[in-house]
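Entry for the shared binder. Reason: the reviewer on the internal report wants the predicted structure included alongside the sequence.
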Amino acid sequence: MSGVLAAMLDLALPRECGGCGRPGAQWCARCEDELASPPIALTPRVDPFVPCWALGTYVGARRAAVLALKERNRHDLAAPIGRAVAAALHHLRVYGHVDPPELARLVLIPAPTRARAARSRGGDPVRRFAADAAAALWPEPVSMVPALTMAHGVRDSVGLGAAQRAANISGRIRVRRGAPALELGCGAGSATSVLLIDDVMTTGATAAESVRVLKEFGVPVDGVLVVAAV
């Protein structure tokens, strides 16, 4: 479904909550509260060798919101997901996992999405809610840097095991040509906290490859934050 068609349907059909389906609201207060729970620590099967967190498990409002954003082109859900990611970052700072803004500038790098999938969804959903997370932290000057891209030949990972997922993306995640990461001071020794942002972590394969590629490019990643963990 194209982004234009999805927008037309949004106008024609009654709005319902993207988390629980309740009619009359795009996003209800109950789902807002559920999504804003403190992040949990993860131990992925494919280790990216940096701390990993999720807003929670892939159930309830988190699962529904991610699926609606990705598969039903509910672009309006990027805003509440972004707010929840921003709230999770606040929790991580409170507990000392991420440096406060007075010590380090925050840089959010969205995990890459297959180009074909992004086109079918009217844009990259991870980049969309990562940008909303950065905006939700205003007036703090947070940078959202779409530094990564996924090469052709990557299959849909649904149904693949950990080893198959790792092999599927090995060598196929790259730094985007012209990415401004170094210009933003993300190199070694700079006062930045760099976090990789993604929607769902299943095995950790995408996170591990992304972290590896960024490190080789001179951008050390401080952690990975995802909306939900399977």
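Summary line for the report: The longest helix spans residues 78-94.
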